[in-house]
Design brief:
Layout: H1 2-25, E1 39-46, H2 65-77, E2 81-90, E3 93-94, H3 95-107, E4 112-121, H4 123-126, E5 133-136, E6 141-143, E7 148-150, H5 155-161, H6 183-208, H7 212-218, E8 223-225, H8 226-232, E9 237-238, H9 241-251, E10 258-260, H10 267-285, H11 289-302, E11 306-309
Parallel strand pairs: 1-2, 1-10, 2-4, 4-5, 4-6, 5-9
Antiparallel strand pairs: 3-11, 6-8, 7-11
Helix pairs in contact: 1-10, 2-3, 6-7
């Protein structure tokens, strides 16, 4: 068994090295525009909203505050860039990360328009609300203004696996997420969820310049199509990226802006990311399946409670 794991590690390392060689041999990609005119930069925000990126892709995957901050800083510092379009395709995610990204968008000094993809829901809508304008496709799924919390009771599974957990705590509620919630604990979790919900509603109302009462009426967690969202005042126009770029240019006083994208990460950045991810995968490959299951269960317990905008 362990011999198979070792062979798998060798294969992973070889693939990583081959990938690095291929990346080195590839010609460097150029940005979407080499012109000298006024530009509107398009920045793609794809995936779940989280504090740190994960996954095994070179780009890391997901939308993080650090990534958005760096992209917007680049746009601020480039004198040729007069406005920005954020292409948002996200089902939502972390509460605090969504709030931080929304703050960066609100603080951006140049005109900024959101272009919604297949989905810009919950946290995806949260980060869109502060923009000067929102453009969605008729079939975009958006809205889903609400908060969800999930508490996992692992007691039955532990019992079947013969695992006994002994808890030593200091603090009345420190272990309240390690088993089925009591009535009092459920009230505490509900109060926490309600508080975050109120923040969500308030921030959407401020960003969209809507009456908070109206936003609260829409904040049922329901998804809306782009067409429905337009009628409800949650988006401003229907269209795609080109429509958003044109509108951003108009807001910046640019009649015929060039659509521009930042160059992809450098070769060294990509290889660095690949090396770290390959090492993680190699470690997983050498861990016996039963230990992987226990590690996963432990991570699930440690990550609770999961309160999210999704």
């Amino acid at each position: 068994m362990m011999r198979n794991y070792r062979w798998l590690v060798v294969v992973i390392v070889v693939l990583a090295l081959v990938s690095a060689v291929i990346l080195l041999a590839m010609p460097g990609e150029k940005s979407a525009s080499n012109g000298t005119g006024d530009r509107v930069v398009v920045i793609y925000l794809l995936g779940a909203i989280e504090e740190e990126s994960g996954g095994m892709s070179l780009s890391g995957g997901g939308i993080t505050p650090r990534y958005v901050e760096k992209q917007l800083e680049q746009a601020e510092e480039d004198g040729k860039i007069k406005a920005a379009v954020l292409r948002v395709n996200s089902p939502g995610g972390s509460v605090a990360a969504s709030q931080q990204i929304a703050a960066y968008i609100e603080a951006f000094s140049k005109p900024l328009v959101i272009s919604m993809g297949d989905m810009a829901a919950s946290g995806g809508y949260y980060i869109s609300a502060p923009a000067e304008g929102i453009v969605a496709q008729p079939g975009t799924l958006t809205g889903s203004i609400g908060v969800i919390s999930q508490v996992m009771d692992m007691g039955g599974l532990y019992e079947k696996m013969g695992i006994k957990v002994e808890t030593i705590k200091s603090g009345r509620y420190k272990d309240m997420l390690s088993s089925e919630l009591t009535g009092e604990e459920r009230e505490l979790m509900q109060a926490l969820s309600d508080d975050i919900y109120d923040q969500f509603v308030s921030d959407v109302a401020a960003g969209r310049e809507m009456d908070e009462k109206k936003v609260r009426e829409l904040a049922t967690g329901q998804l809306f199509t782009g067409t429905q969202a337009l009628k409800l005042g949650l988006v401003d126009r229907l269209g795609g990226i080109d429509e958003a770029v044109k509108w951003a240019g108009e807001l910046a006083g640019v009649e015929d802006p060039e659509k521009f994208e930042f160059p992809p990460p450098s070769f060294l950045e990509q290889v660095s990311g690949l090396g770290v991810k390959a090492a993680i995968l190699a470690e997983r490959a050498t861990t016996p399946p039963e230990i992987q299951i226990l590690n996963y269960l432990q991570q699930q317990i440690q990550s609770l409670p999961r309160v999210a905008l999704e």
